[in-house]
Amino acid sequence: MLNLSNIYKHIKPNKIWRSWGMAAQHPQLSWVESAFKAFLEAGSKSLLEAEGRRLYLGCDDNLDQDEWPQELLEILEENGVKAISVDLEAEPRQVVAIDTSSIRLSLSSKGIVIALRGSMVTRSSYGLYIEVFGPFIAYITEENILELLSSMLGGVSSLDYCSKDYQLYNSVQKVLASFLEKRLQEHAAERFRDSILLFDGSLSAGPLDNPIWLVSRILEKARPRGNDVLAFSKTSILRIWGELLTSLKLDARPPYIVDLTWAIERIEMRVKVLGRTYLAKLYDGLGGFRVDASTRRGAEEVFGSLLKSDALIHGYPETLILAHDYCSFTKIDVIAMQSLLKRLGVEFSRSTSIRDLLFNPLDGDYRS
Amino acid sequence: MKILSKSGDRIEFLASPAEDGLRRGDYLLVSENGRKLLVQVIDIEYAELPGMLEDTLRELASESVSLKSFDPFRVGSLLMDLKDSRLVIGKFRGAIEDGSLRNDLLWLPSRLSSRIEKASPELLEELSGSRGRRPIRVGECMGGGIMISAEDLDGRLTIIIGKKETGKSHLAKLLITALAEYGARIVVLDVNGEYLALSKRIDGSRSEIAEKHLVLTPGKNFKVSIEDAGLKTILDILQHIRNTPANSLREFVRIWKLVKKVEGKITLKGLIDALSRVQIHESIREALLSRLLSLEEIGFFDEESAIRLEDLLNSLRDGGIVVINLSRSLAHGRRIVVEYLLSRLSALLTRGAIDPIFLLAEEAHLYLRETYWEDLVTRMRHIGLFPILITNQPNCIPESVYRQADNVFLFNFTNEVDLNYISKISRVDSETAKRIAKALPPRHCLIVGKAVNDLPIVVKVDQIPLMTMGETKLLFKLR
What we know:
By secondary structure, chain A is of the alpha+beta class. Mean pLDDT of chain A is about 75; it is low at about 1-30, about 60-65 and about 365-368. In chain A, about 35% of the residues lie in helices and about 25% in strands. Chain A is built from 13 helices and 15 strands. A nine-stranded mixed sheet of chain A has the order 2-9-11-12-8-6-3-4-5. Chain A has helices spanning about 15-20, 30-35, 35-50, 70-80, 145-150, 170-190, 210-220, 235-250, 260-265, 300-310, 320-325, 330-345, 355-360, and strands at about 55, 85, 95-105, 110-125, 125-140, 195-200, 205, 230-235, 255-260, 270-275, 275-280, 290-295, 310-315, 315, 345-350. Chain B is an alpha/beta fold. Helices cover about 35% and strands about 25% of the residues of chain B. Chain B has an eleven-stranded mixed sheet. In chain B, strands 1, 2, 3, 4, 6, 7 and 8 form a seven-stranded antiparallel sheet that branches. In chain B, a hairpin with a 2-residue loop joins strand 9 (about 135-140) and strand 10 (about 145-150). The longest helix of chain B has 21 residues, at about 330-350. The model of chain B has no long low-confidence stretch (mean pLDDT about 85). Strand 5 (about 125-140) of chain A pairs parallel with strand 5 of chain B, so a sheet runs across the interface.
């Protein structure tokens, strides 16, 4: 059975896509295989190292985005901001959303086993088309970090960092997931034309997981093909921006956007934002989202097209929510992957929580 | 398959879909270090998995969209298996020690390292097999034959229940023909004419049982004298079937004795004549006359061509099946015949005039009066009348009968009300009875009780080559 249809083999391809020749826009198996061949080889090799090893369960899949500093609020209050109305006459366009998820399956004194999954959701007038990539599983140790990271990027020979820059038990999972996401984003930028590409997070470049060269390359590939990129950041921002909007008393009714690029540039930040940064308040409810945009067209037109093309749920594009849903891991996914590891000879133990040992010695292990 | 939990006598196993092939009623053997536990499967459900709702919702939502997945590690197929994991629900039937089944042993096998496999047919045969010397093959279970013994029915109360067309009569025929072959005498109260053709095989030739098969049709080749019936039987008929008032019954006793004294014998004609002449209140005369005339009308009481029941039964030295054909009788005539039979058999057995006898009563609620049920399962059983009751209406049999049943052959029931009744069978837990009965295919039954050494067994009943005659006459089949 073709790997592509293992999970969802009962779902038949939408006839519309085929009849309208849309299949040509979708990745052929050869692309997927070749794009991730290096990582699959490196990942499989790494799993051989896990054979016979005792790994511990009890993981955390939290992948928080960087939060904006609180002082931004003060700067905005000092200078004031102006709302830009979204162009509601803009044409509808194809929307493509990309997201990835990662989870730590187990860990040992030598390394961690992680799983990554990406998804790409395309919405056009022909309907929805969903592609799921993964899960990719790898056993990461100090020795193979660079090899795995490099292979995820398709065999980039030299990353700008040495292995010590990555914290095996903290950042590497996030970095690897981000690299997978960048690969998918880059692929979408090349594959689609005149589409709105929705990314999860921001267009911040600079940290280990978002190399400037890589983010720039994606945006450069998107522009000549008429694609506009909007990166929606959802983590923790909603609360902060909700307060901000209330305090600034903007004289505008949603949907509108507020250009905050100037404010961001004034703040000393560790990262460089490629494109412009907006506060997007696209619906009447509370709060809004930070949206980094790299567009050829005017931002108000691109947001207008988004409103015409995609459903919004609490001001957040539905395709991005779907992309998130299809890449995120459920408990059953984890059980299945752990059972796969067991078949590869890994032995599992439940990790001991010192907190439970001290405070909940009888049933603490099962408390959420 | 792994043990998941045990609570009381209920044991739950987790199984992968690849381990399909279990049926309700199958036995599993859980063994560890030479010790063994016997568990009967009563149901199979999906295992409750964490996040299953979320996953299923996602799958459901995906049905309307095109979706492709690149799954290099083939986690998808593992997921499929996981999502289809089974929860096998079983009932603890005992631990096996020294070849015998014991319920008093406090031992639990390891959840992880115990070995779980289907019990072998030989083991089931050994554990369920009775110690009798007259085996009756009932059918098969898990690939092996299931035998009960004629001794397990001897002196017992046996019930065969199930909804229509599930195979009750078929099993009854199998049992009574086997009993007759072993020399037992069986009286069959046949309301549907299903047992009339036991002397023929399906191909029309004579069956092995033909010599021992006797059909008696009341009013035709089955007539009895009223004296042979006796005063008590006739009083019972008048009181319970013809609803005769007490003062009329007193007068009837007086007339009975008068006729006996004057004529030396009792005949129905003599009773009617005496009743016409004797000095008696006109309303009582009317009441008794109308009732005696109706008895005369059914043609069952006839002194001239009367047969003696004890002579007939004793003539069947090597056993036999006496079918009382009630299929043509009207309701009250049917009840009169049954009243006579039970009363007479009871008297004959008490006197020792006949050997113990089996009584097969189908849909007995149609002709058996209320007060007889208790008598059937207590007194009559002790004097040598062993009932085999068949019904498709479990609520028509009193609860006390279920509680005292020694053997129950339970066929399919789907209706909840029926299932609640059968759960009163005392020889098996109600969960087993309900879960298994609900899913039994035709010709399959759950046997509980002495016949299977109190080890509930689901049996596919063997075919018998005899003509059934139980089929409904159909209009369109004739055209």
